[in-house]
Design goal:
Layout (H helix, E strand, L loop, with lengths): L7 E4 L8 H15 L6 H20 L5 H15 L6 H14 L10 H8 L4 E6 L3 H10 L8 E4 H4 L6 H11 L6 E5 L2 H11 L2 E5 L12 E2 L10
Parallel strand pairs: 1-2, 1-4, 2-3, 4-5, 5-6
Helix pairs in contact: 1-4, 2-3, 3-4
Length: 229
């Protein structure tokens, strides 16, 4: 069923258009090699991915700062693996990770096709919690930057999704109205509930098959957006 009255479509970036898990894994493989660390990648990622999500939740809630996130997620993972890695190496890895992450640019299946489909029909925008210095590189290097009229990064606002200030800032930047706006994202708390709280219509990109409110519109593939838009 098509959604009526929408003029502006806002996307999350990581885990929605940009395949964060795949690109992150390739980045760790590269920086371990650059730093002569011989750590089984699958073992590392088995702990890191869960730990990283928990640190990002703390970061969204303003309970830790950027430096603590970057250090803590690596330090905790190495502890889980019973690996003794000194702080100098952890800090170096954290810097290398941010430096090299935008050099890998796998997108979710259907990203380009759905953006090509939507661009003539709607004004497209990005709202992201990712680090400003990294997100712009991801958009340019994956060659999707030109699809978006505006890019709202939470660091510019001073708070993070789901804080209403981020969504209100994005609306003002896009020169539109919340009643004409739709948010699409994978994170139920940050993207979906955050946008709903401000008055957006929403579509949950629920590719991980999370159990959520059945009244929330959901898709498991980006091309399924054509059902609604």
């Amino acid at each position: 069923m098509k959604i009526k009255g929408v003029t502006d479509v806002f996307f999350d970036l990581d885990h929605t258009l940009w395949d964060f898990d795949k690109n992150s894994a390739l980045t760790f493989e590269k920086i371990f090699r650059l730093n002569n660390l011989y750590i089984p990648l699958n073992d590392f990622l088995g702990y890191y991915e869960t730990i990283n999500l928990s640190y990002w939740k703390l970061f969204r809630e303003e309970r830790i700062d950027k430096a603590s996130l970057r250090y803590g997620r690596l330090s905790d993972t190495f502890k889980k693996l019973d690996l003794l890695v000194n702080d100098d190496i952890i800090f170096k890895l954290s810097e290398d990770y941010i430096l090299h992450l935008p050099s890998f640019n796998y997108l979710f299946d259907g990203t380009i096709e759905i953006l090509e489909y939507l661009k003539p029909r709607y004004n497209l925008h990005i709202i992201t919690n990712g680090f400003k210095e990294v997100q712009q590189g991801k958009l340019f290097n994956s060659n999707i930057n030109h699809y978006f009229n505006t890019i709202t990064n939470s660091e510019e606002v001073g708070v993070k999704k789901p804080n209403p200030k981020v969504f209100n800032y994005a609306i003002e930047l896009a020169n539109t109205h919340v009643n004409n706006s739709l948010m699409i994202g994978d994170n139920y708390e940050a993207d979906i509930l955050g946008a709903l709280n401000v008055g957006f219509d929403v579509i949950h990109f629920n590719y991980h098959n999370e159990k959520v409110d059945k009244d929330i519109k959901q898709i498991s593939k980006l091309l399924d957006l054509k059902t609604y838009l």
